[in-house]
Write a structure and sequence with these properties.
The protein has 259 residues and is mainly α. The chain has a single domain (58-252), classed as Vanadium-containing Chloroperoxidase, domain 1 (Up-down Bundle), CATH 1.20.144.10. Helices cover 54% and strands 0% of the residues. It contains 13 helices and no strands. The two termini are 30 Å apart.
Length: 259
């Protein structure tokens, strides 16, 4: 799949409504030199009439009840991957204010992996071209400006989920003492796409699988390992602490999907 379309689903949310379709931002260059994962990596999305599709539909229906509430607000924030505050998503879980000014080497590491994790799903998206929930149920998304582009970009698997879960795995390696919490936040990051009405539950689950494969490949990359060491020092030296964590924790308890 062309990077143009994947970039659409990774777009920043802080954009004004305009008549013309917004230009797609660039994802940058990742660590891995090879391209997306092969399209044989994931099984097909749930078939019509299957129990798996019924589960997806139930998950989408449940997500609509969260619109306008705290979980919807958090999901809207999680949709932002390219603004200066994007990497702060994991600040509360890490206990450190992540950002270009507070943890510059960690921030650069996470931003560089966006291309690796996000583009890992592109070939599979192109193969299945699955319609997104908002295209089926006709309900709004949390990023309305990007709906025209999202209509052109397959729903399965979720690139956002791959990135969020991948970031959770990266941070869990940096702080193994709180690994369960970091990985759980990565899972919730992906589920924010269901809450936003732009991905089905199975899309986010396959995104996590893609992230796991990419993370294994990243750990064999010398540059990535070098940057991990630098990021670990950033975390150890960081003094700035995140704010608003009680509100985030409360929002994360809403609308949690069942296994």
């Amino acid at each position: 799949m062309k990077a143009y379309f994947l970039a659409a689903c990774l777009a920043t949310i802080a954009l004004p409504s305009v008549a013309a379709e917004p230009a797609a931002p660039r994802l940058g260059t990742g660590y891995l030199k090879s391209g997306p994962l092969p399209d044989s990596f994931a099984p097909p999305p749930p078939a019509p009439g299957s129990a798996a599709l019924a589960r997806d539909e139930e998950g989408a229906k449940a997500a609509l009840t969260l619109r306008g509430g705290p979980r919807w607000t958090l999901a809207t924030a999680d949709a932002d991957l390219l603004s200066p505050k994007a990497t702060a998503t994991f600040s509360c879980t890490l206990g450190v204010a992540i950002g270009p000014d507070t943890t510059p080497r960690l921030d650069r590491l996470l931003r560089r992996t966006i291309a690796d994790f996000g583009m890992s799903t592109s070939a599979i998206k192109h193969r299945y071209a699955r319609p997104r929930p908002f295209m089926v149920n006709g309900q709004p998304t949390c990023t309305p400006d990007w709906e025209p582009m999202l209509r052109k970009d397959g729903s399965y698997p979720s690139g956002h989920s791959a990135i969020g879960y991948g970031w959770g795995l990266v941070l869990a390696e940096l702080r193994p003492d709180i690994a369960p919490a970091l990985v759980a936040r990565g899972r919730a990051f992906g589920d924010s796409r269901r809450v936003c009405n732009v991905h089905w539950l199975s899309d986010t689950e396959e995104g996590r699988l893609a992230a796991t494969v990419v993370f294994a490949r990243l750990n064999a990359d010398r540059t990535f390992q070098k940057d991990m060491k630098a990021a670990r020092k950033d975390i150890a030296r960081a003094k700035a602490r995140p704010t608003g964590c009680d509100s985030e924790a409360a929002a994360l308890t809403q609308g949690v999907p069942q296994p």
